[in-house]
Amino acid sequence: MSPPVFRFAPSPNGRLHLGHAYSALLNAAFADRMQGRLILRLEDIDITRCRPELIAAMLDDLRWLGLPFEEPVRRQSAHFAEYAAALDRLRARGLVYPCFCSRREIAAASHARDPDGAPLYPGTCRSLAAAEAEARIAAGEPHAWRLDMGQARAACPGPLVIESFDEAGAVTQRLAAPERWGDAVLARKDAPTSYHLAVVHDDALQGVTHVVRGRDLDAATDLHRLLQALLGLPAPRYHHHALLVDAEGGKLAKSRGSEPLAALRARGVTAAELRAQWGFAAEAHAERPEKRSR
């Protein structure tokens, strides 16, 4: 049997912080424990914010953590044609439709929320006549492509099972509920894909068998499991770890201005100290259930 494959897949749209470091080291710990591979993927579909200097800084931070990765490293921005082809497969089956609504229009029309807290799309463009939609696209009107959740679930009527594993390796199962995402965006107005479509495609393409990521992405797994079924892709096992939080209890995030690893390095903090703080030994690693930033 082939060895298990893990991946660390950050978006290089800002400097890495302690939360990224923990997730990367935890992936490495699982890979070591299970005698698997750990690969790096750059999820840089936002080509405006994911700048070359941020990618270079991120790679430098990962080397400082002692995490060398296999080359070449996959950059999603170089594979837009692959994601467009996956979207075309869904379009040919009538499972996606173009959406011309603005964020403001969606917020004004929706009273429900998706698992991320964003306004749940009310389906405004779902019933547009094909001729009208084609004319608006031909005229150059900006549009996204949304999954028709009703049609998608009809195409996958059976239960969708998500397998999760814990730090001891025990496997549990639960049923996915992708309906709570509504008609999710699969291709953005400014990019021929979305996070959801690209990550599902790449995990399958790269042979990823175990996905280790933060609990903030746990709910997204329901939608990913549906896309895997629709596209005929294998489903990895998942482990969603606890998030590092700041002094106020908020999760560490680039958008919140969390202290980057570069600042910690400048203050003299070493990678060995971080490993020791989180219980990661040089060769044997173990997850700790409760974690706070320095």
Describe this structure in words.
It contains ten helices and ten strands. By secondary structure, the protein is of the alpha/beta class. It has two domains: 130 residues, Rossmann fold (3-Layer(aba) Sandwich); 144 residues, Glutamyl-tRNA Synthetase, domain 3. A three-stranded parallel β-sheet has the order 1-2-3. It has a three-stranded antiparallel β-sheet with strand order 4-5-8. The protein has a two-stranded antiparallel sheet with strand order 6-7. Helix 7 packs across helix 8.
Q: What percentage of residues falls in helices of 4 or more residues?
A: 25-40%
Portion in strands: 5-15%
Q: Any idea how many domains? A: 2
Structural class of the helices, strands and pairings?
Answer: alpha/beta
Distinct helical segment count? 10
CATH superfamily of the largest domain: Glutamyl-tRNA Synthetase, Domain 3
Distance between the termini: 41 Å
The average pLDDT score comes to 93
Which spans of ≥5 residues are poorly predicted at pLDDT below 50? 283-294
Organism: Methylobacterium nodulans (strain LMG 21967 / CNCM I-2342 / ORS 2060)
InterPro entries: aa-tRNA-synth_I_CS, Glu/Gln-tRNA-synth, Glu/Gln-tRNA-synth_Ib_cat-dom, GluQ/Sye, Rossmann-like_a/b/a_fold
Pfam families: tRNA-synt_1c (PF00749)
Protein name: Glutamyl-tRNA synthetase class Ic
